[in-house]
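Lab meeting, item 3. Inverse folding demo.
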């Protein structure tokens, strides 16, 4: 049984909201998730911000977008907006 190189990869897509669009070709996307506290077992809402590449500068603040990981585009930017 051979593994072919062209098999489908599992890509971790993230959904979030654009919170800043002030940079050229870059947007900041806030992604919300829920984590469980290790001791108290309570669900906590955690927000993480990602810098994502937006080639045409078409996304504005408040837009719901989906981002995917890509090769590093700059020091802090390694996601791309779909």
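The presenter then showed the designed sequence:
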């Amino acid at each position: 049984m051979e593994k072919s190189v062209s098999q489908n990869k599992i890509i971790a897509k993230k959904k979030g909201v654009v919170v800043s669009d002030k940079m050229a070709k870059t947007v900041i996307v806030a992604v919300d998730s829920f984590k469980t506290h290790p001791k108290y077992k309570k669900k906590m809402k955690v927000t993480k911000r990602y810098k994502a590449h937006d080639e045409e500068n078409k996304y504005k603040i408040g837009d719901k977008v989906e981002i995917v990981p890509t090769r590093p585009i700059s020091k802090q930017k390694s996601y791309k907006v779909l």
